[in-house]
Amino acid sequence: MTASIRPEHRADVEYLLRLGDTTLILGQRLGEWCGHAPILEEDIALANVALDLIGQTRAVLTRAGEMEDQGFDEDQLAYLREERDYRNLTMVELPRGDFAFTVLRNLFVSTWLKLHWERLQDSADAELPGIAGKALKEARYHQQHAADWVLRLADGTDESRARIDTALAELARYVPEMFTADAVDAAAEAGKLGPSRAALREAWEAEIASVFGECGLTLPAAGAFVSTGTQGVHTEHLGRILAEMQYLQRAYPGGVW
Amino acid sequence: MCGAEVVDRERAAWRVLETVLDPEVPALSLVDLGIVREVHALEDGLQVVLTPTYSGCPATEVIEQSVVDALAEAGFGPVTVVTRRAPAWTTDWISDDGRRKLREYGIAPPGPVQASEGVAIRIVRKTAAVACPRCGSTNTERLSAFGSTACKSLYRCVACREPFEHFKPI
Predict the structure, then answer these.
(1) Of A13, A66, B25, B149, which is the most exposed, with the fewest CB atoms less than 10 Å away?
(2) Within a domain: residue A65?
(3) How many domains does chain A have?
(4) In this complex, how many residue pairs, one in chain A and one in chain B, have their CB atoms less than 8 Å apart?
């Protein structure tokens, strides 16, 4: 078995891992739909979105490895960390659920990522503006695709509406984490690396409201609970997804295509 | 190596690259697609600057290798490939010749990108009409925003009933 690696917990590296782990884990979750989506076009669409997210992950984790300076590459960072060293939003590690859950989560996360990429185009970092400029174009397509489906399901049959309502009730409690800033956000903002999560809330809520307003959905008021994936404290689901993701690298150390 | 030689070698290298086809859309060369940004003649060999299309494009490594192989085979000596992300690749960089080749191949070429930039979320989709590459009718409908590769979406022509692919403006 290949030994786990442990990146140093520097603020700038943490900031990038929060982005890169969020795209990595969501990409993996969407990949689970391959061969299982309700219609062929959506099977292709979800796999396409997953592919974009994995591509974005490669760029961001490569940059995180360069900053961290222990020589870790994208593959080592993606496959050889322990659960507690992942920094993704908790929302993306939740099981894929049904199609309504998937498209609503995609709407929430793609909007959050899009707002990040927009602002990261002005990052003082040497590489991030280039990565963000590319990713932004992709995120717009992801957001539009998810929004189309949320509208269609919320405005569809009683069954599709009930499923969107259930998905919203399940996902709402993981929303506050998207905007609860901490020392890592403060350092990123001060160092002009990227925006604080807190600075994205207003724009995110406005974009979600523009979709929800069209189909009679309302974002529930935030409760006191704040999930902690970005702090490295995860739900039981992340360990299982990592077991699947990491199996090949652990069984065949250093294996490449 | 004098200035004129440098220019000649770079021109010759561009001509070689015009024959290297994109592995996923083999109607287009890498030059038509606009991903070859610069070619520099070095004392020994060449440096080629490429800008990838999509972050997760699975053809990226194949493209790099095909550039190296084609130029090496044409006798240009050692070739290094540099990946440049910024400015991000856009379908506006596809040449006019490339657009014609796409249409002939049965893929509707992308419209200008400005139309889709900076719009928050389009609740009522106002995408420009996409002309059917077979019969030319603009009476077409989108079946899916995503297609067989990252760069395409699926359409159907209502006039001639043929399904076709559209190169997404990005």
Answers:
(1) A66
(2) yes
(3) 1
(4) 86
Q: Which residues of B touch A145 (CB under 8 A)?
A: 145-146
ipTM for the predicted complex: 0.82
Domain that holds residue A150: 11-251
Determine, yes or no, domain membership for A100. Answer: yes
Predicted TM-score of the model (pTM): 0.92
Q: Flag if A144 and B145 touch (Cβ within 8 Å).
A: yes
Q: How far is CA B101 from CA A28, B93, B96, B98, B169, in A?
A: 36, 14, 9, 5, 16
Phi (first) and psi of residue B46, to 5 degrees: -135, 155
Closest CA–CA distance from residue A128 to any residue of chain B (Å): 10
Which residues are CB-neighbours of B101 under 8 A, at least 6 positions away? B27, B28, B32
What is the maximum alpha-carbon separation in chain B? Answer: 59
**A-chain residues near B154 (CB < 8 A):** 41
Q: In A, residues 40-69, which contact B (CB 8 Å cutoff)?
A: 41-42, 44-45, 48-49, 51-56, 58-59
Q: How far is A212 from chain B (nearest CA, A)?
A: 10
Could you give the CA distance from residue A142 to residue A65 in angstroms, rounded to a whole number?
27
* Contact yes or no for A133 and B89 at CB 8 A: no
- What whole-number distance in Å separates Cα of residue B140 and Cα of residue B123? 19
CATH of the domain at A75: 1.20.1260.10
Other CB atoms within 10 A of residue A207 CB: 19
Q: Catalogue all structural domains in chain B, each as residue range(s) with its CATH number.
A: 3-83 (3.30.300.130), 105-167 (no CATH)
Contact across the interface for A55 and B89, Cβ inside 8 Å: no
Per the CB < 8 Å rule, is B55 touching A56? yes
